[in-house]
Amino acid sequence: MAADLAQISDVDIDSDGVFKYVLIRVHVASPSEDPAGECKEIVRGYKWAEYHADIYDKVSGELQRKGYDCECLGGGRISHQSQDRKIHVYGYSMGYGRAQHSVSTEKIKAKYPDYEVTWADDGY
C-alpha cells in the first residue's frame, strides 16, 4: 500500500488568487496501529473554502474512503500570482494553528520550480 502514497499529489492549490490552505499528513494506516508507518505531507489550498476545516474535511474524507488516515498539521494562506510566477505562504488557521510553512514551501517549490516561492509566519 505504501506505493499508493506516491499516487497522492504533494500539492494541489488553486491556480491564482489568495486562499486558505492546510498541511495534511497522510498515513497508510492509523498512527495508533502502526506508529512508524509510511506517511507523507500534502498541501491543499482552494479559494472556495470559507474555513480551513472545509478543505481538511473534503480532502480527508476522500482519502479515508481510499483507506488512508489523515491528520491536519496546521493551516495558513497562500497568495498565488501566476502571471508574476510568485507564491507566498503565510498566516495561520484559527482552528488548526500555524502550519510549518517551510515544509509547505518546499513541496510547492517542487511543483512550481520556475516560481519564486516565499513564506513568512506573520499575517493572518
From TrEMBL:
InterPro entries: Janus, Janus_sf
Active site per the UniProt annotation: 52
First and last residue of the signal peptide: none
Reaction equations catalysed: N(tele)-phospho-L-histidyl-[protein] + H2O = L-histidyl-[protein] + phosphate; N(pros)-phospho-L-histidyl-[protein] + H2O = L-histidyl-[protein] + phosphate
Enzyme class: hydrolase
Keyword Hydrolase found: yes
EC number: 3.9.1.3
GO molecular function, one term: protein histidine phosphatase activity
Alphabetical UniProt keywords: Cytoplasm, Hydrolase, Protein phosphatase
Keyword Hydrolase tagged: yes
Superkingdom as given in the UniProt entry: Eukaryota
Annotated residues for binding of substrate: 20
Example of a GO cellular component annotation carried by this entry: cytosol
Localization per Swiss-Prot or TrEMBL: Cytoplasm
Subunit-level organization: Monomer.
Function: Exhibits phosphohistidine phosphatase activity.
Family to which the UniProt record says this protein belongs: Belongs to the janus family.
Xref: PANTHER family: 14 KDA PHOSPHOHISTIDINE PHOSPHATASE, JANUS-A/JANUS-B
Descriptive protein name: 14 kDa phosphohistidine phosphatase
Organism lineage: Eukaryota, Metazoa, Chordata, Craniata, Vertebrata
Gene: Phpt1
